[in-house]
Amino acid sequence: MAWRTSKRLFRLRLARAGFTPAVTEPRNPESFDDTMRDALRRHAPRLLARMLAESVLVDLGFVNPDSLTTTLRRLRRGSPAPPLLYDMLAVEVGLRSMTSHNTSPHATGIPT
C-alpha cells in the first residue's frame, strides 16, 4: 500500500527517468474537473436522450427512466450535472460496446 499511496511508485519511476520535481511532485496537481463539467454540459443531454430511447442500464433496471427524464430536463434548463452522471454514462457506453446495442459514435451520441 505504501507504494500505491500518492502514486509513489509512478512518481519514483518518473524521477529516475530524469523528470524534475515540478513533474514528479507538482504543487498543484492536474485536475480535469473543468473539462469534465464542460463535456457533460455539451454532450450529456444528447447521450441521455439516446438512453431514453434505448439503454442497457434502463433495460436491466439499473437506471430509472423517470429519473433520467428529469435529469435530462434539468440539464436542458442549464442545471449542473449530478456528480455521478459521468460514471453512469461511461458504464452505459461501455456496456453498449460489449453488447448488441449499436455502438457507432453517432448511435451513442459520442462526438467524433
What does this structure look like?
- By secondary structure, the protein is mainly alpha-helical.
- Helices cover 61% and strands 0% of the residues.
- The protein has helices at 8-16, 21-24, 33-53, 56-59, 65-76, 85-98, 105-108.
- The mean pLDDT is 83.
**Largest sheet, if any?**
none
Which whole number gives the mean pLDDT? 83
* Structure summary, number of beta strands: 0
Our estimate of the beta-strand percent is under 5%
Give the topology string: H per helix, E per strand: HHHHHHH
Helix percentage: 55-70%
Shape: elongated
For the record, give the distance between the C-alpha atoms at the N and C termini, rounded to a whole number: 39 Å
Rg computed from alpha carbons, rounded to a whole number of angstroms: 19 Å
Number of helices: 7
Structural class: mainly alpha
Stretches where pLDDT is under 50 for at least 5 consecutive residues are none
